[in-house]
Design a protein that fits this description.
Helix content: 25-40%
CATH superfamily of the largest domain: FAD/NAD(P)-binding domain
Number of domains: 3
CATH architecture of the largest domain: 3-Layer(bba) Sandwich
Radius of gyration: 27 Å
Strand content: 15-25%
Number of helices: 15
Oligomer: single chain
Largest sheet: 7 strands, mixed
CATH class of the largest domain: Alpha Beta
């Protein structure tokens, strides 16, 4: 017997035998629901046998047989009525457990978001994606409104706006819809400089309406799920948007709740993060006011957006304390869940010069697990060389936290995701491996590049070129080389400009005589502080592909 726990009130299972019942009673189950019709297979006991044995053990029973693949509205209503009044917890079974979890999920759909239902199914060992539309509706049957566009883009961040603009710059006649519920659009690379006292937070934000290209339909809604077999996106409220081509770039989810106690203390008690618009100014407040004590900076396991940002916060803070003459009274600790300071070794020597300048203590293989803001304590899981894990505790006066990160829930539980929850794309073309009319770029794709705005700037023209080729509106295909850029702000006025592609291959944009990215540079600082923001707002988001021309691949006849 295989069981899958849904919650404290119900679990589901495949075919029960009479001999299974004593164990189930001992585990604390109070009710047994049977959803397999008698005589469906030669290997099953009749419900009468199960009923007699269960009642002898003091278990409540219910017989609600359902034909495989034909769960009706009436079946769901009958299950809901029985489940409401049955002693809990319930063990519901059928041949495989699928009908049981289908009944439960459909009666729960009215009050439970679709991604949560799909996730519950995955955790219990069942794929509910075939019920996506029905679950999203939160009811059985009824008309569902549908709108259609040639291209649908999910996500109004850097990747989504850039992709829309790159498409329109090539073919202004395209019918494009962009789906995003947010009112605001952020220049997130600027938040490091907000936390360093260089930028104001207000300079990094604009309204979403002001950055969506003219001619693109903005659907201000959240995505609930996907129906790729029917070329449809399901919105919350069970509206459908159909497409010929789909571009998925919803960004990445910051999982603040994964660290015990963090949500209760963020933004106070000296706990901050440059990964949030509202907290980056607090970082600068803490840094500018700290005159002595301990400053702790953390980096979670990869992948994360802008892998250099956690240490940028450390460098800019250390620089301020150095310039203020208080560095000798402040201890800096950098706790990194990874095993190295930076993933591309060519940039490490320059970074280590600043680690030494600021007397920073490096702690590798340390993952933040818990924070007590009032007590000013933090705990880390330290993975040792033999694989064992020990708990490490430290105090702090300033704690800069970067949380674990993963794809949004509606992506992670969708048919678009790989086994680890990231959108499964060809790393060269950014085309989905299983659904050829779907592309993905930005932070949620599983292409092995750095998750930075610079990567999205290079990816958007590739996706636009390849999508138009597929629509037979373009004459060429393009390849993405994995380019990503991380301007590592090592001090106020100098940047180590890390530029690299797949496999850590260096991909400098400028000749070495002009700008050597492996050395701290004033010119790279000017690029970061003065040039990149207008390049972002007026170039990338407007379809001007400065330093982002895609590599062409010779046209091949389609099969």
């Amino acid at each position: 017997m295989k069981t899958g726990k849904i919650n404290q009130e119900i679990s589901v299972a495949d075919q029960l035998l009479v001999s299974d019942l004593p164990s189930l009673a001992a585990q604390g189950f109070k009710s047994i629901f049977c959803h397999r019709p008698d005589g469906e297979g030669p290997d099953q006991p009749s419900f009468h046998e199960i009923d007699v044995a269960a009642k002898a053990l003091g278990l409540h029973t219910a017989y609600l047989p359902v034909t495989s693949g034909k769960v009706s509205d009436e079946d769901v209503a009958a299950f809901a009525s029985q489940f409401q009044h049955a002693p809990k917890p319930v063990l519901a079974y059928c041949r495989s457990g699928m009908r049981a979890i289908t009944l439960w999920s459909l009666q729960a759909a009215a009050s439970t978001p679709l991604p949560e239902l799909l996730s519950i199914g995955q955790q219990a060992g069942y794929d509910l994606s075939g019920l996506t539309l029905r679950l999203a509706a939160g009811k059985q049957g009824g008309e569902v409104p549908v709108s259609h566009y040639t291209v649908v883009i999910i996500g109004g961040g850097a990747a989504g706006i850039a992709a829309a603009s790159s498409l329109l710059s090539r073919d202004p006649s395209l019918e494009i819809a962009l789906i995003d519920p947010a009112e605001t659009h952020y220049y997130q690379p600027g938040w490091t400089l907000v936390g360093g006292g260089v930028f104001s937070a207000e300079s990094t934000v604009k309204t979403m309406a002001s950055v969506i290209p003219a001619g693109v339909k903005w659907i201000k809604a959240a995505v609930a799920g996907f129906d790729p077999q029917q070329d449809r996106v399901i919105l919350e409220g069970c509206r459908l948007v159909s497409y010929e081509k789909l571009i998925v770039c919803p960004g990445i989810k910051l999982n603040w709740g994964a660290i015990e106690g963090l949500n209760e203390t963020l933004g106070r008690n000296g706990v901050t993060s440059n990964y949030r618009y509202d907290l980056a100014p607090y970082t600068w407040e803490l840094v500018s006011q700290l005159k002595h004590g301990k400053a702790v900076f953390t980096q979670p396991p990869m992948p994360i957006k802008c892998a250099g940002a956690p240490q940028k916060a450390m460098y800019l803070s250390g620089d301020h304390w150095w310039r203020s003459g208080v560095l000798n009274d402040i201890q800096i600790d950098f706790y990194n869940a990874g095993a190295v300071l930076f993933g591309v070794k060519e940039y490490v020597p320059a970074l280590m010069q600043y680690v030494e300048k600021y007397h920073s203590h490096l702690h590798f293989s340390h993952r933040l697990t818990k924070v007590d803001g009032q007590a000013k304590r933090a705990w880390f899981a330290h993975t040792l060389a033999d694989g064992s894990v020990q708990e490490v505790e430290t105090d702090f006066d300033l704690l800069h936290v970067v949380p674990p990160q993963h794809t949004p829930d509606f992506i992670r539980v969708s048919p678009l995701a790989d086994t680890t929850g990231w959108i499964d794309v060809n790393p060269d073309t950014l085309q989905h491996k299983h659904f050829p009319n779907i592309y993905a770029l930005g932070d949620a794709a599983n292409s092995p590049n750095a998750k930075t705005a610079a990567a999205a700037r290079k990816q958007a023209p590739v996706v636009a070129t390849n999508l138009l080729f597929d629509l037979r509106r373009g004459q060429k295909r393009a390849a993405y080389d994995g380019y990503g850029s991380c301007p590592l702000t090592v001090e106020r006025g100098k940047v180590v400009l890390a530029e690299f592609g797949y496999g850590g291959r260096l991909l400098p944009s400028f000749p070495q005589w002009l700008l050597n990215g492996q050395q701290p540079s004033r010119l790279a600082w000017i690029l970061k502080e003065r040039l990149l923001p207008p390049i972002y707002w007026k170039g990338m988001l407007k379809g001007h592909e400065w330093l982002a021309t895609p590599q062409d691949v010779a046209r091949q006849e389609q099969a």
